[in-house]
Amino acid sequence: MAFDDPVSNDQAHDQAHDQAHDQAQPDPKDSLKFHLLTNDPHRGYMISITPNQVDLLNRIVTRTGLCQTEAPAICNFIMVDSKSRKLVNLTKKSYDNAMQRIFTHAFRTLPGAVSESTKQELSTFSEDLFTWFDRSGNKKIRALEFACGFTVLCGGSKSDKLEHIFELLDQDNDSLVTKQEIILFVQSFLVILMGVSSSFTHLDGTPTGTDAASVARAINAGTEWATSQVFDALKPRDDKLCFDDFADWYTKGGYQSIPWLELLDLRKWVLT
Known about the structure:
By secondary structure, the chain is mainly alpha-helical. It has helices at 11-15, 18-24, 51-63, 71-79, 92-107, 116-133, 143-150, 158-169, 179-196, 212-234, 243-251, and strands at 32-37, 44-49, 89-91, 140-142, 177-178, 199-202, 240-241.
């Protein structure tokens, strides 16, 4: 797809997670690596993201203005179409329309025009994004899942993004999210991370496939393990929890289970 220029041109919370930050922060010359733990016999995966992939994300979010745009505005373009109709699924056509609206909005934060090379790189990246989320191959993706995952590419702190994601997931406005909704969020984030990764291996050294089915298994297994850590620890009534409960669990040790959640904050790996 092509992108056109528009006509007109919680620090304290994050400091509590320095240990998780250190685990997720790459050396400028090395690949970023993190553990994706699972309940499988091989115990999980080591995920690697090369400096080239990090540089690509840096160009995507900085040269388009995306990193200066807050998640709520961006997610609205995904969840609601140009005729103010709420979307459940995105076909390729509605996805392309949403992406056009997103980047037209983001381009307005820039002091000048977007280069043709950036537009081409953005077009390729956008096509890849759709493919990553279209895991069934039916040319259709869930709008809510995509909105949650796309949040990682927007501006804002990890805490701000998590709070917004909980608001997105709270479909009945009772300030609570279900276990299935947490699964959807965790899965959406891992789709992005696995999509930009350069390689992944089993923690016990046994070989792993690199095809789409192997990636999907890793995402599903990692999602199941991460979600179980939250709900086994909190044991919420009716399998529903609020943002404050999740934030409290994460701050008091949950970050050791899922340190890759720190990567929601682009300043910790893309904007360094």
